[in-house]
Amino acid sequence: MSADWSHLLASPEYLGGLYDGTPPPAGSCDPFYVHIDERGTSVTLGFDTRILPVNIPAEWHEQGFNAFEFHLVFEGVEKLRVTGWDAAAAGNIGMTAREGVFEVVLGSAESGIAFRASTARLARARAYLASGSI
Question: What are 19-26's contacts with CB under 8 Å, separation 24+?
Fold first, then answer.
């Protein structure tokens, strides 16, 4: 993940409070969900990690949760390009944020998704019990 992506996730309105400002590293976030909504010009991305937040509710401990997922919604999407989907390549995530514009890339020019968006927000975050490893 790019430095801008890590900076975004570390901010309080995203995952900063849960992870004490240090979100999981790029290699531990697996993109598992993409939803392109042409009606609202948004793209929702879902990520899974086995690195649990440090600040978790007591019930997460009690339930034995070992996985965490979060969804980011990018709105005001423009210049959307989809050239395929290769799950392994999609793990190459890049983002820059300049002058109120997010530029997001998952994968590569040969197999991936790229777009620009005017806003980004955390839509969902939850812990759960997963089997195996990612």
Answer: 19/53, 19/54, 19/55, 20/54, 20/55, 24/49, 24/51, 25/1, 25/51, 26/1, 26/93
Q: What is the pLDDT of residue 91?
A: 76
DSSP secondary-structure letter at 80? E
Domain membership of residue 97 as a residue range:
3-128
Cα torsion 27, 111, 101, 76: sign = negative
In a domain, residue 134? The reply is: no
Residue 76 lies in a domain: yes
What tens digit of pLDDT does each residue of 37-83 get? 988 899 999 999 999 999 988 888 889 899 999 999 999 999 999 99
Residue 79 within a domain = yes
pLDDT for residue 19: 93
Domain assignment of residue 64, yes or no? yes
Percent pLDDT > 90 in the chain is: 51
Q: Are 113 and 106 in contact (CB under 8 A)?
A: yes
Strand 78-82's sheet: what is its strand order? Answer: 78-82, 112-117, 101-107, 93-98
